[in-house]
Design a protein that fits this description.
Blueprint lengths: L1 H19 L1 E4 L2 E3 L2 E4 L2 E4 L3 E3 L4 E4 L4 E4 L15 E4 L2 E5 L6 E5 L11 E5 L6 E3 L1 E4 L3 E6 L4 E3 L2 E3 L4 E6 L5 E3 L2 E3 L4 E6 L5 E3 L2 E3 L3 E7 L4 E3 L13 E3 L4 E7 L3 E3 L9 H6 L1 E2 L10 E2 L11 H7 L27 E5 L20 E3 L13 E2 L8 E2 L11 E3 L9 E3 L7 H6 L4 E8 L5 E8 L3 H12 L2 E2 L3 E2 L2 E2 L1 E9 L1
Parallel strand pairs: 1-4, 2-5, 3-6, 4-7, 5-8, 6-9, 7-10, 8-11, 9-12, 10-13, 11-14, 12-15, 13-16, 14-17, 15-18, 16-19, 17-20, 18-21, 19-22, 20-23, 22-25, 23-26, 24-27, 26-28, 27-29, 34-41
Antiparallel strand pairs: 3-30, 31-41, 32-33, 35-38, 36-37, 36-41, 39-40
Protein backbone atom coordinates (compact mmCIF):
# COMPACT_ATOMS: atom_id res chain seq x y z
CA UNK A 1 0.00 0.00 0.00
CA UNK A 2 2.85 2.39 0.88
CA UNK A 3 4.56 1.76 -2.48
CA UNK A 4 1.29 2.44 -4.25
CA UNK A 5 0.87 5.75 -2.41
CA UNK A 6 4.42 6.80 -3.23
CA UNK A 7 3.97 5.91 -6.89
CA UNK A 8 0.66 7.79 -7.02
CA UNK A 9 2.29 10.85 -5.43
CA UNK A 10 5.16 10.82 -7.92
CA UNK A 11 2.76 10.54 -10.86
CA UNK A 12 0.65 13.41 -9.51
CA UNK A 13 3.78 15.52 -8.94
CA UNK A 14 4.95 14.78 -12.48
CA UNK A 15 1.59 15.79 -13.96
CA UNK A 16 1.53 18.98 -11.90
CA UNK A 17 5.04 19.90 -13.08
CA UNK A 18 4.06 19.25 -16.70
CA UNK A 19 0.97 21.44 -16.39
CA UNK A 20 3.04 24.22 -14.81
CA UNK A 21 5.44 24.36 -17.75
CA UNK A 22 5.35 27.43 -19.97
CA UNK A 23 6.44 27.20 -23.60
CA UNK A 24 7.95 30.47 -24.85
CA UNK A 25 7.95 31.39 -28.53
CA UNK A 26 9.96 34.34 -29.82
CA UNK A 27 8.16 33.99 -33.14
CA UNK A 28 7.24 30.86 -35.08
CA UNK A 29 6.36 29.78 -38.62
CA UNK A 30 4.20 26.66 -38.58
CA UNK A 31 4.58 24.56 -41.72
CA UNK A 32 3.02 21.28 -40.62
CA UNK A 33 0.22 20.08 -38.35
CA UNK A 34 0.89 20.67 -34.66
CA UNK A 35 -1.01 20.92 -31.36
CA UNK A 36 -0.70 23.33 -28.46
CA UNK A 37 -1.69 22.71 -24.85
CA UNK A 38 -0.82 24.03 -21.42
CA UNK A 39 0.51 27.63 -21.32
CA UNK A 40 2.18 29.19 -24.36
CA UNK A 41 3.81 32.61 -24.16
CA UNK A 42 4.28 34.42 -27.48
CA UNK A 43 6.87 37.21 -27.85
CA UNK A 44 6.89 37.43 -31.66
CA UNK A 45 4.57 36.82 -34.59
CA UNK A 46 3.18 33.31 -35.06
CA UNK A 47 2.37 32.47 -38.71
CA UNK A 48 0.40 29.38 -39.69
CA UNK A 49 1.53 28.94 -43.26
CA UNK A 50 -0.71 27.79 -46.10
CA UNK A 51 -1.17 24.01 -45.90
CA UNK A 52 -0.39 23.94 -42.15
CA UNK A 53 -2.77 23.46 -39.23
CA UNK A 54 -2.59 24.54 -35.60
CA UNK A 55 -4.93 22.74 -33.19
CA UNK A 56 -5.24 24.22 -29.70
CA UNK A 57 -6.50 21.89 -26.98
CA UNK A 58 -9.17 22.83 -24.40
CA UNK A 59 -7.87 24.77 -21.40
CA UNK A 60 -4.81 26.15 -23.20
CA UNK A 61 -3.71 29.66 -22.27
CA UNK A 62 -2.01 31.80 -24.92
CA UNK A 63 -0.22 34.72 -23.25
CA UNK A 64 0.87 37.38 -25.74
CA UNK A 65 3.60 39.91 -24.98
CA UNK A 66 3.02 43.65 -25.18
CA UNK A 67 5.51 44.32 -27.97
CA UNK A 68 6.83 42.30 -30.91
CA UNK A 69 10.33 41.04 -30.18
CA UNK A 70 10.97 40.63 -33.93
CA UNK A 71 9.51 44.00 -35.01
CA UNK A 72 8.15 42.53 -38.24
CA UNK A 73 4.79 41.95 -39.93
CA UNK A 74 2.00 44.35 -40.85
CA UNK A 75 2.07 45.62 -37.26
CA UNK A 76 5.75 45.67 -36.20
CA UNK A 77 4.93 47.03 -32.74
CA UNK A 78 2.51 44.27 -31.75
CA UNK A 79 2.47 40.48 -31.84
CA UNK A 80 0.21 39.01 -34.51
CA UNK A 81 -1.20 35.50 -34.92
CA UNK A 82 -1.52 35.16 -38.71
CA UNK A 83 -3.56 32.27 -40.10
CA UNK A 84 -2.84 31.50 -43.74
CA UNK A 85 -3.58 27.83 -43.14
CA UNK A 86 -6.07 26.51 -40.56
CA UNK A 87 -6.60 27.29 -36.88
CA UNK A 88 -8.72 24.92 -34.81
CA UNK A 89 -9.14 26.37 -31.30
CA UNK A 90 -11.92 24.32 -29.77
CA UNK A 91 -12.37 24.51 -26.01
CA UNK A 92 -15.40 23.54 -23.98
CA UNK A 93 -17.62 25.17 -21.37
CA UNK A 94 -15.38 24.04 -18.51
CA UNK A 95 -12.03 24.49 -20.30
CA UNK A 96 -12.02 27.63 -22.39
CA UNK A 97 -9.03 28.66 -24.46
CA UNK A 98 -7.57 32.07 -23.56
CA UNK A 99 -5.89 34.47 -25.99
CA UNK A 100 -4.86 37.27 -23.64
CA UNK A 101 -2.14 39.74 -22.76
CA UNK A 102 0.88 38.53 -20.81
CA UNK A 103 1.23 41.92 -19.11
CA UNK A 104 0.81 42.05 -15.36
CA UNK A 105 -1.60 44.97 -15.84
CA UNK A 106 -3.04 44.42 -19.32
CA UNK A 107 -4.74 47.14 -21.37
CA UNK A 108 -6.56 47.33 -24.68
CA UNK A 109 -4.15 47.08 -27.62
CA UNK A 110 -1.38 45.09 -25.94
CA UNK A 111 -1.20 42.78 -28.99
CA UNK A 112 -2.47 42.98 -32.55
CA UNK A 113 -4.98 40.10 -32.72
CA UNK A 114 -5.73 36.96 -34.72
CA UNK A 115 -5.70 37.53 -38.48
CA UNK A 116 -7.42 34.81 -40.53
CA UNK A 117 -6.71 34.99 -44.25
CA UNK A 118 -7.64 31.74 -46.01
CA UNK A 119 -10.44 31.74 -48.62
CA UNK A 120 -10.19 27.97 -49.16
CA UNK A 121 -10.30 26.38 -45.70
CA UNK A 122 -12.32 27.23 -42.61
CA UNK A 123 -10.86 27.89 -39.20
CA UNK A 124 -12.90 27.03 -36.09
CA UNK A 125 -12.90 29.05 -32.86
CA UNK A 126 -15.19 27.63 -30.18
CA UNK A 127 -15.34 28.34 -26.42
CA UNK A 128 -12.48 30.85 -26.52
CA UNK A 129 -11.82 34.19 -24.87
CA UNK A 130 -10.00 36.83 -26.93
CA UNK A 131 -9.06 40.07 -25.20
CA UNK A 132 -6.65 43.04 -25.02
CA UNK A 133 -5.84 43.07 -28.75
CA UNK A 134 -6.16 45.92 -31.26
CA UNK A 135 -8.74 43.92 -33.21
CA UNK A 136 -9.62 40.65 -31.51
CA UNK A 137 -10.28 38.83 -34.78
CA UNK A 138 -9.45 40.26 -38.22
CA UNK A 139 -11.09 37.99 -40.80
CA UNK A 140 -10.28 38.45 -44.49
CA UNK A 141 -11.82 36.46 -47.36
CA UNK A 142 -12.63 33.65 -44.95
CA UNK A 143 -15.81 31.73 -44.12
CA UNK A 144 -14.59 30.57 -40.73
CA UNK A 145 -16.85 29.96 -37.74
CA UNK A 146 -16.61 31.59 -34.32
CA UNK A 147 -19.01 30.30 -31.68
CA UNK A 148 -19.61 30.22 -27.92
CA UNK A 149 -16.80 32.71 -27.36
CA UNK A 150 -16.22 35.96 -25.54
CA UNK A 151 -14.56 38.83 -27.43
CA UNK A 152 -13.88 41.81 -25.20
CA UNK A 153 -11.47 44.58 -24.11
CA UNK A 154 -10.03 45.09 -27.61
CA UNK A 155 -8.84 48.59 -28.53
CA UNK A 156 -10.49 49.02 -31.94
CA UNK A 157 -12.96 46.18 -32.43
CA UNK A 158 -13.94 42.72 -31.33
CA UNK A 159 -14.30 41.62 -34.95
CA UNK A 160 -12.90 43.32 -38.06
CA UNK A 161 -14.28 41.58 -41.17
CA UNK A 162 -13.11 42.69 -44.60
CA UNK A 163 -12.38 41.72 -48.21
CA UNK A 164 -15.66 39.80 -48.71
CA UNK A 165 -15.19 37.74 -45.56
CA UNK A 166 -18.32 35.79 -44.66
CA UNK A 167 -17.71 34.16 -41.26
CA UNK A 168 -20.47 32.68 -39.12
CA UNK A 169 -20.56 34.28 -35.67
CA UNK A 170 -22.82 32.27 -33.39
CA UNK A 171 -23.68 32.70 -29.73
CA UNK A 172 -20.79 34.99 -28.77
CA UNK A 173 -20.44 37.71 -26.15
CA UNK A 174 -19.05 40.76 -27.99
CA UNK A 175 -18.76 43.38 -25.29
CA UNK A 176 -16.68 46.24 -23.90
CA UNK A 177 -14.51 46.84 -26.96
CA UNK A 178 -12.99 50.31 -27.31
CA UNK A 179 -14.67 51.31 -30.57
CA UNK A 180 -16.91 48.69 -32.16
CA UNK A 181 -18.10 45.19 -31.44
CA UNK A 182 -18.04 44.37 -35.17
CA UNK A 183 -16.70 46.33 -38.16
CA UNK A 184 -17.61 45.26 -41.71
CA UNK A 185 -15.68 46.74 -44.64
CA UNK A 186 -14.68 46.04 -48.25
CA UNK A 187 -17.69 43.85 -49.04
CA UNK A 188 -17.73 41.75 -45.87
CA UNK A 189 -20.88 39.66 -45.32
CA UNK A 190 -20.74 37.97 -41.90
CA UNK A 191 -23.75 36.02 -40.61
CA UNK A 192 -24.63 36.59 -36.96
CA UNK A 193 -26.97 34.52 -34.79
CA UNK A 194 -27.80 34.60 -31.08
CA UNK A 195 -25.00 36.97 -30.05
CA UNK A 196 -24.90 39.60 -27.33
CA UNK A 197 -23.36 42.83 -28.68
CA UNK A 198 -23.30 45.36 -25.88
CA UNK A 199 -21.28 47.99 -24.01
CA UNK A 200 -19.12 48.95 -27.01
CA UNK A 201 -18.91 52.54 -28.26
CA UNK A 202 -20.77 51.35 -31.39
CA UNK A 203 -22.23 47.87 -31.65
CA UNK A 204 -21.82 47.25 -35.41
CA UNK A 205 -20.22 49.50 -38.06
CA UNK A 206 -21.00 48.77 -41.73
CA UNK A 207 -18.77 50.42 -44.36
CA UNK A 208 -18.25 50.35 -48.14
CA UNK A 209 -20.25 47.59 -49.89
CA UNK A 210 -20.51 45.35 -46.86
CA UNK A 211 -23.74 43.56 -46.03
CA UNK A 212 -23.87 41.64 -42.77
CA UNK A 213 -26.84 39.34 -42.21
CA UNK A 214 -28.11 39.98 -38.69
CA UNK A 215 -31.45 38.25 -39.22
CA UNK A 216 -33.73 37.51 -42.18
CA UNK A 217 -37.16 36.01 -41.60
CA UNK A 218 -37.94 35.46 -45.29
CA UNK A 219 -37.34 31.96 -46.73
CA UNK A 220 -34.35 31.66 -49.00
CA UNK A 221 -30.60 31.55 -49.01
CA UNK A 222 -30.33 34.51 -46.65
CA UNK A 223 -32.76 33.13 -44.05
CA UNK A 224 -31.33 33.63 -40.57
CA UNK A 225 -33.21 33.41 -37.28
CA UNK A 226 -31.28 36.40 -35.91
CA UNK A 227 -31.99 36.47 -32.16
CA UNK A 228 -29.05 38.77 -31.55
CA UNK A 229 -29.13 41.15 -28.59
CA UNK A 230 -27.76 44.48 -29.83
CA UNK A 231 -28.32 47.08 -27.15
CA UNK A 232 -26.76 49.46 -24.65
CA UNK A 233 -23.89 50.48 -26.88
CA UNK A 234 -22.78 54.00 -26.00
CA UNK A 235 -23.20 55.87 -29.31
CA UNK A 236 -25.06 53.66 -31.80
CA UNK A 237 -26.18 50.05 -31.82
CA UNK A 238 -25.89 49.73 -35.62
CA UNK A 239 -24.19 52.29 -37.87
CA UNK A 240 -24.88 51.76 -41.58
CA UNK A 241 -22.39 53.81 -43.58
CA UNK A 242 -22.87 51.67 -46.72
CA UNK A 243 -25.33 51.91 -49.61
CA UNK A 244 -26.78 48.46 -48.80
CA UNK A 245 -30.00 47.48 -47.08
CA UNK A 246 -28.99 45.79 -43.83
CA UNK A 247 -31.21 42.91 -42.76
CA UNK A 248 -31.48 42.95 -38.97
CA UNK A 249 -34.79 41.22 -38.32
CA UNK A 250 -35.87 39.33 -35.20
CA UNK A 251 -33.34 40.93 -32.86
CA UNK A 252 -33.64 42.60 -29.47
CA UNK A 253 -32.73 46.28 -29.40
CA UNK A 254 -33.48 47.03 -25.77
CA UNK A 255 -36.89 48.47 -26.63
CA UNK A 256 -40.07 47.53 -28.48
CA UNK A 257 -40.56 51.17 -29.53
CA UNK A 258 -39.58 51.51 -33.20
CA UNK A 259 -38.75 55.20 -32.86
CA UNK A 260 -36.44 54.48 -29.91
CA UNK A 261 -34.73 51.72 -31.91
CA UNK A 262 -34.30 53.99 -34.94
CA UNK A 263 -32.86 56.71 -32.72
CA UNK A 264 -29.96 54.47 -31.73
CA UNK A 265 -29.32 53.16 -35.26
CA UNK A 266 -27.78 55.24 -38.06
CA UNK A 267 -28.97 54.81 -41.67
CA UNK A 268 -30.68 56.69 -44.54
CA UNK A 269 -33.07 58.33 -42.06
CA UNK A 270 -30.00 60.24 -40.85
CA UNK A 271 -28.23 60.62 -44.20
CA UNK A 272 -29.93 59.82 -47.53
CA UNK A 273 -26.62 58.70 -49.06
CA UNK A 274 -26.66 55.49 -47.03
CA UNK A 275 -28.80 52.37 -47.04
CA UNK A 276 -31.60 51.56 -44.63
CA UNK A 277 -31.81 49.09 -41.76
CA UNK A 278 -34.67 46.58 -41.59
CA UNK A 279 -35.32 45.75 -37.92
CA UNK A 280 -38.88 44.42 -38.26
CA UNK A 281 -40.03 42.07 -36.80
CA UNK A 282 -38.54 42.91 -33.42
CA UNK A 283 -37.72 40.22 -30.89
CA UNK A 284 -39.86 41.32 -28.00
CA UNK A 285 -39.22 38.90 -25.11
CA UNK A 286 -37.05 40.18 -22.27
CA UNK A 287 -35.99 36.93 -20.63
CA UNK A 288 -32.39 36.22 -19.69
CA UNK A 289 -30.55 33.54 -21.62
CA UNK A 290 -29.07 31.17 -19.06
CA UNK A 291 -26.81 29.70 -21.74
CA UNK A 292 -25.08 33.06 -22.23
CA UNK A 293 -24.85 33.61 -18.48
CA UNK A 294 -23.09 30.27 -18.09
CA UNK A 295 -20.85 31.08 -21.07
CA UNK A 296 -19.63 34.23 -19.30
CA UNK A 297 -18.85 32.48 -16.00
CA UNK A 298 -15.30 32.47 -14.68
CA UNK A 299 -14.01 34.88 -17.30
CA UNK A 300 -14.23 38.19 -15.43
CA UNK A 301 -11.06 37.44 -13.44
CA UNK A 302 -7.94 37.01 -15.52
CA UNK A 303 -6.02 33.73 -15.63
CA UNK A 304 -2.66 33.58 -13.90
CA UNK A 305 0.07 35.23 -15.94
CA UNK A 306 3.80 35.05 -16.12
CA UNK A 307 5.62 37.98 -14.58
CA UNK A 308 6.19 40.58 -17.26
CA UNK A 309 9.76 41.11 -16.14
CA UNK A 310 12.56 38.82 -15.13
CA UNK A 311 14.61 36.31 -17.10
CA UNK A 312 14.52 36.96 -20.85
CA UNK A 313 12.48 34.50 -22.85
CA UNK A 314 14.43 31.65 -24.37
CA UNK A 315 13.85 30.46 -27.94
CA UNK A 316 12.21 27.11 -28.50
CA UNK A 317 14.74 24.38 -29.10
CA UNK A 318 14.83 22.35 -32.29
CA UNK A 319 13.05 19.48 -30.54
CA UNK A 320 9.38 20.25 -29.97
CA UNK A 321 8.47 20.65 -26.27
CA UNK A 322 5.64 18.68 -24.74
CA UNK A 323 3.10 21.48 -25.14
CA UNK A 324 3.72 21.93 -28.87
CA UNK A 325 3.51 18.54 -30.46
CA UNK A 326 3.76 17.88 -34.22
CA UNK A 327 0.87 15.82 -35.57
CA UNK A 328 2.12 15.01 -39.02
CA UNK A 329 4.94 15.76 -41.43
CA UNK A 330 2.75 17.75 -43.76
CA UNK A 331 4.95 19.32 -46.50
CA UNK A 332 5.57 23.05 -46.49
CA UNK A 333 3.46 25.07 -48.96
CA UNK A 334 3.15 28.31 -49.93
CA UNK A 335 -6.38 47.54 -41.57
CA UNK A 336 -6.88 50.11 -41.49
CA UNK A 337 -8.03 50.94 -37.90
CA UNK A 338 -11.17 52.95 -37.34
CA UNK A 339 -10.29 55.93 -35.17
CA UNK A 340 -12.20 56.43 -31.96
CA UNK A 341 -13.96 59.76 -32.01
CA UNK A 342 -12.69 62.17 -29.38
CA UNK A 343 -14.17 65.14 -27.61
CA UNK A 344 -11.31 67.45 -26.71
CA UNK A 345 -12.16 69.26 -23.49
CA UNK A 346 -10.24 70.25 -20.42
CA UNK A 347 -12.92 68.92 -18.09
CA UNK A 348 -13.85 65.25 -18.43
CA UNK A 349 -17.30 64.26 -19.56
CA UNK A 350 -18.63 61.13 -17.87
CA UNK A 351 -20.12 58.63 -20.30
CA UNK A 352 -22.47 56.09 -18.74
CA UNK A 353 -24.41 53.40 -20.58
CA UNK A 354 -28.08 54.37 -20.65
CA UNK A 355 -30.01 51.17 -21.35
CA UNK A 356 -29.91 47.57 -20.22
CA UNK A 357 -31.84 44.67 -21.71
CA UNK A 358 -32.09 41.08 -20.63
CA UNK A 359 -31.14 38.62 -23.34
CA UNK A 360 -33.58 35.91 -24.41
CA UNK A 361 -33.49 32.13 -24.69
CA UNK A 362 -31.43 30.91 -27.62
CA UNK A 363 -32.02 28.15 -30.12
CA UNK A 364 -31.09 24.75 -28.75
CA UNK A 365 -28.84 23.92 -31.65
CA UNK A 366 -27.15 25.43 -34.70
CA UNK A 367 -25.86 22.98 -37.30
CA UNK A 368 -22.89 23.70 -39.52
CA UNK A 369 -21.43 21.99 -42.58
CA UNK A 370 -18.32 20.11 -43.56
CA UNK A 371 -15.76 19.90 -40.75
CA UNK A 372 -17.68 22.26 -38.42
CA UNK A 373 -19.01 20.44 -35.39
CA UNK A 374 -22.57 20.93 -34.19
CA UNK A 375 -22.80 23.85 -31.80
CA UNK A 376 -25.18 22.93 -28.98
CA UNK A 377 -26.42 25.05 -26.12
CA UNK A 378 -26.51 23.28 -22.73
CA UNK A 379 -30.12 22.25 -22.14
CA UNK A 380 -30.07 22.87 -18.38
CA UNK A 381 -27.20 25.25 -17.61
CA UNK A 382 -26.30 25.75 -13.98
CA UNK A 383 -25.75 29.35 -12.93
CA UNK A 384 -23.15 30.05 -10.27
CA UNK A 385 -24.78 32.78 -8.19
CA UNK A 386 -21.41 33.66 -6.61
CA UNK A 387 -19.82 34.61 -9.91
CA UNK A 388 -19.30 38.19 -11.07
CA UNK A 389 -22.17 38.75 -13.51
CA UNK A 390 -21.93 40.83 -16.66
CA UNK A 391 -24.07 43.92 -16.31
CA UNK A 392 -26.61 42.96 -19.05
CA UNK A 393 -27.65 39.89 -17.05
CA UNK A 394 -29.06 41.84 -14.10
CA UNK A 395 -32.81 41.62 -13.49
CA UNK A 396 -33.18 45.36 -14.04
CA UNK A 397 -30.98 48.16 -15.39
CA UNK A 398 -28.13 49.26 -13.17
CA UNK A 399 -28.72 52.45 -11.22
CA UNK A 400 -25.94 54.79 -10.19
CA UNK A 401 -26.65 56.37 -6.80
CA UNK A 402 -23.49 58.48 -6.69
CA UNK A 403 -20.86 59.32 -9.29
CA UNK A 404 -17.72 61.40 -9.02
CA UNK A 405 -15.72 63.35 -11.56
CA UNK A 406 -11.92 62.96 -11.66
CA UNK A 407 -10.09 65.70 -9.79
CA UNK A 408 -7.10 66.74 -11.88
CA UNK A 409 -4.08 68.55 -10.53
CA UNK A 410 -2.63 71.68 -12.10
CA UNK A 411 0.15 69.54 -13.57
CA UNK A 412 -2.43 67.46 -15.45
CA UNK A 413 -4.00 70.53 -17.05
CA UNK A 414 -0.59 71.63 -18.32
CA UNK A 415 -0.56 68.57 -20.62
CA UNK A 416 -4.16 69.10 -21.80
CA UNK A 417 -4.57 65.48 -22.84
CA UNK A 418 -7.66 64.36 -24.74
CA UNK A 419 -9.18 60.96 -25.17
CA UNK A 420 -11.17 58.33 -23.36
CA UNK A 421 -10.25 56.47 -20.21
CA UNK A 422 -12.15 53.19 -19.86
CA UNK A 423 -12.33 51.48 -16.49
CA UNK A 424 -13.94 48.15 -15.64
CA UNK A 425 -15.33 47.94 -12.11
CA UNK A 426 -16.67 45.11 -9.98
CA UNK A 427 -19.62 46.11 -7.82
CA UNK A 428 -20.24 44.31 -4.53
CA UNK A 429 -23.57 42.86 -3.45
CA UNK A 430 -24.05 46.02 -1.41
CA UNK A 431 -23.47 48.36 -4.36
CA UNK A 432 -19.91 49.48 -3.51
CA UNK A 433 -17.03 49.36 -5.99
CA UNK A 434 -14.73 46.63 -4.74
CA UNK A 435 -12.31 46.42 -7.65
CA UNK A 436 -11.21 48.65 -10.54
CA UNK A 437 -9.25 47.76 -13.67
CA UNK A 438 -7.84 50.19 -16.23
CA UNK A 439 -8.73 49.00 -19.75
CA UNK A 440 -7.67 52.05 -21.75
CA UNK A 441 -5.75 54.99 -20.38
CA UNK A 442 -3.93 58.23 -21.09
CA UNK A 443 -1.00 59.40 -18.96
CA UNK A 444 -0.43 58.01 -15.44
CA UNK A 445 -1.64 61.21 -13.77
CA UNK A 446 -4.93 61.14 -15.73
CA UNK A 447 -5.34 57.42 -15.15
CA UNK A 448 -4.92 57.66 -11.38
CA UNK A 449 -7.43 60.50 -11.14
CA UNK A 450 -9.96 58.47 -13.11
CA UNK A 451 -9.38 55.31 -11.06
CA UNK A 452 -9.77 57.24 -7.82
CA UNK A 453 -13.08 58.69 -8.98
CA UNK A 454 -14.34 55.28 -10.16
CA UNK A 455 -13.66 53.76 -6.74
CA UNK A 456 -16.11 56.20 -5.17
CA UNK A 457 -19.08 55.34 -7.40
CA UNK A 458 -22.11 53.84 -5.66
CA UNK A 459 -24.76 51.65 -7.27
CA UNK A 460 -28.10 50.24 -6.30
CA UNK A 461 -27.39 46.57 -5.50
CA UNK A 462 -27.72 44.38 -8.57
CA UNK A 463 -29.92 41.30 -8.59
CA UNK A 464 -30.22 38.15 -10.68
CA UNK A 465 -33.35 36.06 -10.10
CA UNK A 466 -34.13 38.52 -7.31
CA UNK A 467 -30.93 37.56 -5.49
CA UNK A 468 -28.20 40.11 -4.70
CA UNK A 469 -25.07 39.46 -6.78
CA UNK A 470 -21.72 41.00 -7.65
CA UNK A 471 -21.57 42.43 -11.14
CA UNK A 472 -19.13 44.11 -13.50
CA UNK A 473 -19.75 47.30 -15.42
CA UNK A 474 -17.75 49.92 -17.33
CA UNK A 475 -17.13 53.58 -16.58
CA UNK A 476 -15.89 55.84 -19.38
CA UNK A 477 -14.39 59.27 -18.72
CA UNK A 478 -13.88 61.44 -21.80
CA UNK A 479 -11.38 64.28 -21.54
Amino acid sequence: MMKFRVAFFLIALSLTSLQAQVTTLNGLKITQEIKWSGTVRINGDVIIEKGARLTINPGTRILIANGDLQNVGSDPKHVEIIVKGVLIARGDIQNKIYFTSAAAQPQMGDWSGIIIFNPEQKSIIDYCLIEYAVDGLNIKKSQSQISNSQIRYNFNSGFLTELQAAPKIIRCLITENGYAGLICKYGAAPVLMENLISLNQIGIVVLDRSKPNLGSASPGAEQNTGQNRIFDNMQYNLYNHSSELILAENNSWGSSDQSAIDGLNYDNKDDARFGSIDTSPILGARETSEALVVLSQNTVSQPAREASSGTPAQPVSSGQPAQIAPVSNRPKTDTEPVEVQKNITLQPELVIESRIEQVQPLLAESKTKENEKTVAVPQEPEIDMEQIFLEPFLDSPKEILYKEMPQLSEAAFMFKESGRIIISVVVSKGGLVENTKLLKGLSPIYNEAALKAARNFRYRPGKVKNQAVRFSTTIVFQF
